[in-house]
Specification:
Layout (H helix, E strand, L loop, with lengths): L1 E4 L9 H11 L3 E4 L18 H10 L3 E10 L6 H20 L3 E5 L10 H21 L2 E5 L7 H10 L6 E6 L1 H7 L3 H8 L3 E6 L1 E4 L11 E4 L8 H10 L5 E4 L12 H15 L5
Parallel strand pairs: 1-10, 2-3, 3-4, 4-5, 5-6, 6-7, 7-10
Antiparallel strand pairs: 8-9
Helix pairs in contact: 3-4, 5-7, 7-8
Length: 281
């Protein structure tokens, strides 16, 4: 199993800081979401005129770009908003191609309160087909995260099947969302995603008092190993479907400012994963 991290966990680090520190922690890969406090990567010289140099620097550091985590959503308002999403995805796909990244993450973007059917499902299917075509032009995959109104493996599978399982489109299993938001067990999620799974996002959390009374559960993100997510069940589920790709640590520091810094969280993640997956050592 290969270990990566998204730069969500260290949003203000420079490229130099990332490349200096990540190998020392024991990471194999890096997934860009932030750089130097910005998410609009296509405006940064590291990903525009210096893109080829950035790719060389990453390789020289012994790292692979496991993916790019965009904020693009499949479900958008019609017209200008849908086109703007396509334009943003195109820019991220161009960066991914230059860095040799296999995929760009997108969110479903639909509300959990609206059934995934009828006009909504049709609109998402059509937009996903546009995204698939954008990725195909550059040989970069599109990966849909278990999030929003498609937080379960079953919902991701439904969307992909509605779009006729477009070539190059994969799924990302954020282990937190299917269980905490939808009550879907790790084994169930693995079963639904086994034909499409391209990437895994890892985190830990613990239920707050009364958090298991109803879905979505009330919980709090915490350092790996300090929560109550059934980590061994996730490991068993991934082994059952033969997954051997990247597992990326998604430390949501910008959204939860009171979380410990990356300097504490990143080594803890590596330590916990080497316990769960001894072959990572």
């Amino acid at each position: 199993m290969k270990l990566s991290f998204t730069t969500l966990g260290c949003p203000d680090w420079t490229l130099g800081e990332l490349l200096e520190r990540a190998p020392g922690y024991g990471f194999d890969g890096i997934d860009f979401r932030f750089l130097g406090g910005r998410t609009d990567l296509w405006h940064l010289p590291e990903f525009t005129q210096d893109l080829a140099q950035t790719a060389r620097r990453i390789g020289d550091a012994g790292l692979t770009v496991s993916g790019l985590s965009s904020g693009v959503r499949i479900r958008t308002a019609d017209g200008a908003a849908a086109q703007a999403a396509c334009d943003e995805l195109s820019r991220m796909v161009e960066i991914a191609h230059g860095l040799g990244a296999p995929m760009v993450r997108v969110f479903p973007g639909n509300s959990p309160d609206t059934p995934l059917e009828g006009a909504l499902l049709h609109a998402m299917r059509e937009q996903l087909s546009r995204y698939a075509a954008i990725g195909a032009q550059a040989g970069v995959g599109i990966a849909i995260e278990t999030h929003d109104g498609c937080s379960s493996g079953a919902q991701i599978k439904r969307l992909l099947e509605a779009a006729s399982n477009p070539a190059g489109v994969r799924s990302i299993w954020d282990i937190h969302h299917p269980l905490r938001h939808c009550g879907e067990s790790p084994a169930e999620t693995a079963m639904h995603l086994c034909g499409s799974l391209g990437y895994v996002h890892w985190k830990d959390s613990r239920l707050l008092p009364g958090g298991d009374a109803q879905l979505p559960n009330r919980d709090k993100l915490c350092l790996p190993g300090e929560g109550d997510l059934p980590m061994t069940a996730f490991v068993e589920a991934l082994r059952e479907i033969g997954y051997n790709g990247f597992i990326a640590f998604e430390w949501e520091k910008p959204w939860v400012p009171d979380l410990p810094p990356a300097e504490i969280a990143f080594p803890r993640f590596i330590e916990s994963m080497r316990t769960l997956f001894p072959t990572c050592a």
